[in-house]
Amino acid sequence: MKLDGAAAVVTGGASGLGEATARALAAAGVKVAIFDLNAEAGEKVAGEIGGVFCPVNVTDDASVDAGFEKARAAHGQERILVNCAGTGNAYKTASRAKDGTVKHFPIDEFNKIIQINLVGTFRCIAKSAAGMLSLEPMEDGERGAIVNTASVAAEDGQMGQAAYSASKGGIVGLTLPVARDLMGDGIRVNTILPGIFNTPLMNGAPDNVKEALAASVPFPKRFGDPAEYASLAVEMCRNSYFNGEDVRLDGAIRMAPR
């Protein structure tokens, strides 16, 4: 796909992997709209890349609709969607405390992660793809490209990650069938499974925890740089033969149980 002059939407684009992707797309000549809840950070990034910020909650239909309306009013119908919005939590499925008290994973917390990470991703996919159908096809009949963010936890989730792993596994599971749903209309769909990346969420961890995690990566023994994620996301958009794939980007790590 020719990127220069195209329009894109990046969810979670105010920080971390989404911010890096928004910046990389803008550097390639793409007109970028950032969907995020953090207005201050989102406006700042959008201003620096010549884009537009849209306050969006991916769990809310009306909010997502308003975001796409604002983005399309500014840049026209997007040909690119990159889904980076997401979050996580950690609770064991069931556990017994030293005093004998038994508790289980709070169901509302499980549902929250599924709604944000999985349903929110699919909501944006469906609404963006519907808009892409209005576009004239490019070379090879291509109308658009969608990139989703899963996680290595989709395949080797750790203790406490039942909700997070389920949400990210769902993203992996929908990639191929959605690519098949949209193949007749020239819309490609791919997913990245990042490992341990240097994002704001990770920056909040204690130094000893970060050092141990970095040392657990086979090679290179460090956290991934968000720019490395962005590089792959941009290539998935640019390379028109990239379709229906789920790709780990993780320095060959396989997560231990804890």
Write the layout of secondary structure elements.
Elements: E1 7-11, H1 16-27, E2 31-36, H2 39-49, E3 52-55, H3 61-75, E4 80-83, E5 94-96, E6 102-104, H4 107-132, E7 144-149, H5 153-156, H6 162-182, E8 187-194, H7 200-203, H8 207-215, H9 226-238, E9 246-249
Parallel strand pairs: 1-2, 1-4, 2-3, 4-7, 7-8, 8-9
Antiparallel strand pairs: 5-6
The CATH homologous superfamily is named: NAD(P)-binding Rossmann-like Domain
Total beta-strand segments: 9
How much helix, percentage-wise, in residues?
40-55%
Q: Could you name the CATH class?
A: Alpha Beta
- Helix and strand element order: EHEHEHEEEHEHHEHHHE
Write up this protein.
The protein is built from nine helices and nine strands. The protein has 258 residues and is α/β, with parallel strands linked by helices. The chain has one domain (7-249): NAD(P)-binding Rossmann-like Domain (Rossmann fold, 3-Layer(aba) Sandwich). The strands form two sheets. It has a seven-stranded parallel beta sheet with strand order 3-2-1-4-7-8-9, sandwiched between helices. It has a two-stranded antiparallel sheet with strand order 5-6. A hairpin with a 5-residue loop joins strand 5 (94-96) and strand 6. The N and C termini lie far apart (41 Å).
